[in-house]
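Hello,

Following up on my earlier ticket. Below are the four sequence lines again, exactly as submitted.
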Amino acid sequence: MRIAATIIGAIAMTATPAAAQEAPPRLVPAFTIVAEIGPAEELGATARGPRRIIPITGGTIEGEGISGTVRPGAWDWQVDRADGCTELEAVYFVETDDGAVINVNNRATICPPAQGEESAPVFTRPIFEAPLGAYQWLGQGTFVGRLGLATDHPVPAVRIEVFRVQ
Amino acid sequence: MRIAATIIGAIAMTATPAAAQEAPPRLVPAFTIVAEIGPAEELGATARGPRRIIPITGGTIEGEGISGTVRPGAWDWQVDRADGCTELEAVYFVETDDGAVINVNNRATICPPAQGEESAPVFTRPIFEAPLGAYQWLGQGTFVGRLGLATDHPVPAVRIEVFRVQ
Amino acid sequence: MRIAATIIGAIAMTATPAAAQEAPPRLVPAFTIVAEIGPAEELGATARGPRRIIPITGGTIEGEGISGTVRPGAWDWQVDRADGCTELEAVYFVETDDGAVINVNNRATICPPAQGEESAPVFTRPIFEAPLGAYQWLGQGTFVGRLGLATDHPVPAVRIEVFRVQ
Amino acid sequence: MRIAATIIGAIAMTATPAAAQEAPPRLVPAFTIVAEIGPAEELGATARGPRRIIPITGGTIEGEGISGTVRPGAWDWQVDRADGCTELEAVYFVETDDGAVINVNNRATICPPAQGEESAPVFTRPIFEAPLGAYQWLGQGTFVGRLGLATDHPVPAVRIEVFRVQ
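Thanks for your patience. The regenerated structure is below:
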């Protein structure tokens, strides 16, 4: 019942002005995670393909309405697929300056660039789970990440710019 | 090693022109799924919250380079959370006109609008798994969906506009 | 706090008589699912390995305190791994005679027998989610399945004997 | 085809002697994991229920054909459900004495004992992923865990006795 109302509400919106209906959603900058990483550790071939671990050893989260650190003691667990792409799944916790602990699950598929093309940016599918309260919007929105090396960071790190779909 | 090269390639790109680096990624229309649905079936309260099933009974997929049907005999499995939002997970298969069968996993979180606000569009996190070949790009890209009722469809249905992150 | 108490309760038990501590848990028959299946449909090679669908078209669930049917319109989604084993994941709903609808997620890894050995039985890891009430024990216990062809069934079917760990 | 043969092989076996068919599978001791744990950290209420983290700080794995350590820097992530039970999901890596790194995913549902009853042992559903080679059997078998406090260990720890289904 409630969900029906919610969906009907959504359609009411998408059904109204043609312009609004046709414009794609936008990706609005939300915050940036810098995740410090240790050396990749190759685990060897498994039944699902070659596996490796990228240790996550610390870092920061900074953005509008959120500021904090990445907890050490976590990892990105990768597997190489038969199509030459690599699947990443990084799971870790960030702790905000006011003490909330938020779970991050960030997945991506990295594929080699087509021949003759420069490499494409790496996009990720981050999901957050936060306690109810100031940060519960993290578990209610839809987000996309853009992943790159944090070349300006004093230790090896990746930068994930997180955008909210709006 | 390979992945290191891939990430370095990615950073090489994001590190070059400041403009490119600062512009958010874009959501580019890829294709549209119209999923025909049956009446919601309330399963009652569970240990994780109230559950319901929305049967998926057919439909279509249409877009640049892809055209086909949604196979009947699938469902969207929903659960209501403590924060008033509902989690959706629809799992089904689409079959293209040239015979490829592609798995779709489409998740979303639908939250009621804040008081005094009109309802927001519903965004989804679709993941695809296609056989290697003409449709393998579906398993290599990053996508966002926009979900609404397909009011112009002859039978009850939802429309999912799928955008590729670029 | 509560969980601490629960774990302490558990250890109090396992810590007491040496005999109880050393005897392995037992697998006690709980109920049997007969799942009727359609012909396997080969989807071809994917980035994760060759995929196939085994349609689930009906069936029954029978046991102490539970009796009902398997809903049609579901499937077992399989993938062949690099070690010669096949991973199965069957997801479907059963409906009890008194109207409860229970989600079943049943996973297994099937490996070819070692050379010179007869084939081993196939064991599965079933997880259930039932509404609160008469069947909530399904979501609270730990279960193991034994999978075989239901040779005595009038249409092609598999039989899953489900055992509760005790 | 191959899978069909595998299932037919399995049924051929289970279909033969009635005695073999009727006896439940057995749980055969495989190895024991002692996981050292830090103090539980309560994260507060979330949209899925109250969450907590139990840090995993080290430990050992010992059994027939396997010996090694539990890597620190991991955690058990728990959530309390509406039925009074708690779901655990511990994810960590063990490293064998000969250098293999094995992923462990261990889930359990802990429920309070019924009124007037002593508490029940806690059973778990461990899944392993090991590199191909000496330990690939870990990713091919079906296992059940029995969880209790390791009262004889010098630091706070849980003991998981792991049994193979046979």
